[in-house]
């Protein structure tokens, strides 16, 4: 087999659930991964449960992609924290697990976020824009950048309180600006309103933007960054099937023609690499 052909996921393993608890409308799900390498911000795992939901005709049949939100500890006792939104059979089955149960895990997979100076040699700071469940990789990235002394501003947006959670635990007391579409907290409106304030009010010559969230939000961020000539990296959380490059179920069109597979060439892509952040929905 050619060396560059994707291999089956290395080291698919059963991990023990350390705990799971509610965090607003989401859940924080912690697995103990004794064997795997340390994940980088933006990478994800494929998680599988042995349970099936009777309400969904035996689904889920396939593992589900979930971004790592926080990593604690070191090899042998590493704890991986995930933020889960229960939207279908896969995530509902994960949410039913309890401490001591077992969960299938493969990964970490995918390309992580770049450091700011890799996107802009003159970069002096980063703006992080997270929406909904997409705040998970932003939490991992924020800790990574702050620990390396990168000035970081974080903007998080949610539809409403029922579709939000994890801010206090994953972002701690670090300063974040919040936007709620229903006006229940913070800015009343979209998180992109807050981004526009930064892009129009600041000297953005030394900024880079990182973002993860729903496709419509990511597309708005991509277009705003292009308009203000600010480099941007987006983590696209489009549907995936195999998670390791074999099925092309996650392909999105590239700006220069052809397709890229988000599971191996993403999920983090530069804004100018793709024609639209909505593209993953239609494939
Ligand atoms: C790289 C990556 C990282 C991710 N990180 C996270 C994370 O940290 N936390 C998290 O909770 N999720 C995350 N996701 C999303 C998660 O993998 C998906 O939502 C997954 O499909 C959930 O599985 P499910 O069985 O619970 O729901 P599914 O049944 O797969 O449904 C998921 C959503 O898609 C909709 N849907 C399903 N089928 C269709 C269809 N045919 N047409 C239109 N809409 C449809 C459903 O209504 C629902 O809202 C990530 C995805 C990727 C690719
Ligand atoms: S999910 Fe199968 S190739 Fe990406």
If strands are numbered along the chain, what order do they take across the biggest sheet?
A: 4-3-7-1-2-6-5
Helix content: 10-25%
Rg of Cα set: 18 Å
Tell me what portion of residues adopts beta-strand conformation.
Answer: 25-35%
N-to-C SSE string, H for helix and E for strand:
EEEEEEHEHEHEHEEHEHEEEHEH
Spatial separation of the terminal alpha carbons: 28 Å
Average pLDDT for all residues: 89
CATH architecture of the largest domain: 3-Layer(aba) Sandwich
Envelope shape: globular
The main sheet comes to: 7 strands, antiparallel
Regarding CATH, which class of the largest domain? Answer: Alpha Beta
CATH topological fold name of the largest domain: Rossmann fold
How many domains is the backbone divided into? Answer: 2
**How many helical stretches?**
8
Low-confidence stretches: 1-7
Q: Give the number of DSSP strands.
A: 16
Can you describe this structure?
This protein is an alpha/beta fold and 283 residues long. The chain has two domains: 13-108, Beta Barrel (Elongation Factor Tu (Ef-tu), domain 3); 116-282, Nucleotide-binding domain of ferredoxin-NADP reductase (FNR) module (Rossmann fold, 3-Layer(aba) Sandwich). It contains eight helices and 16 strands. The protein has helices spanning 89-96, 116-119, 135-147, 167-171, 191-201, 215-227, 262-265, 279-282, and strands at 13-23, 26-33, 44-48, 64-67, 70-72, 78-84, 102-109, 125-131, 152-158, 176-180, 187-188, 207-212, 232-235, 251-253, 259-261, 268-270. The strands form three sheets. It has a seven-stranded antiparallel beta sheet. Helix 5 packs parallel to helix 6 (215-227). The two termini are 28 Å apart. Mean pLDDT is 89; it is low at 1-7. The site of FE2/S2 (inorganic) cluster (FES) has 12 residues, from loops. Flavin-adenine dinucleotide (FAD) binds next to strand 4, strand 6 and helix 1.
